[in-house]
Amino acid sequence: MALRILCPAKVNLFLQVIGRRPDGYHDIFSLLWGVGIYDELWLRPLPAGVRLSCSDPGLPNDGGNLAAAAAYRFFEALGRPAAVEIRLEKRIPVAAGLGGGSSDAAGVLLGLNRLYADPLGPERLREMGRRLGADVPFFLFGSPALASGIGDELEPYPEPAAFAALIVTPPYGVSTRMVYQKLNLELTKAEKRPTRAHFQNTVFSPVRDLWNDLESVTLDRHPELRRLKSLLLDLGAEGALMSGSGPSVFGLFARREAAASAARALPRKPGWRFFCVDLLPSAAPVIEEK
Fold this sequence. Notes:
By secondary structure, this protein is α+β, with helices and mostly antiparallel strands.
């Protein structure tokens, strides 16, 4: 049996950095939502080993790729030799603040669990995901979520957000590690931001609630992204924000047609990518048996 797995991207609709931890990571509070850009994975059993092929030649084909790392971690937990072929078609931009690698890792964990008749429960899979990357548990969790800790402590977000997103990704990546290292925590702490109780008890509003502490670093280094946010608002977005550590920027629109119209109006630059997508009710990878 082979599995085809569609692995969605994510955006941060809110991201506040609380403080630096002794282990070097940062505690955050964030609102995470899946969006309809999908990497495509194919999993097939092999007699032995992990064989990964990837459509993006810039990504590793070994354990340095989160998809392969997830496979090794799964078989280690199962107590048996690794034995799977992984074919990865990349459509989510890399190092763009959209969680593509983490989504791929979650897809591999869920897919292998399906191939081997679900030997590992959801909590065990999420624990494995935490050791692979802070965003992996979100894609295993599935629903829109309020995230705390390093982003791995999750609770369902109770209110629907019926928006379309126009996501724009420039032709360069941003190092998440660098952004957090350069972040001025004293400056971010001076800003009064919505609390967990606010998000638990009010309907999400792009005008009021969109926020990302990490913009203070990335947008200073790439001022064209600040101009892009303003242009999205001029074109009718109800709010605009950078996702994660960037550099992807998105605008939220009440209707898909309005997002598509804004996409047509934006100036085209070499290498820039545009995605008109919906906010998803679930960010869990979709598994199909073939």
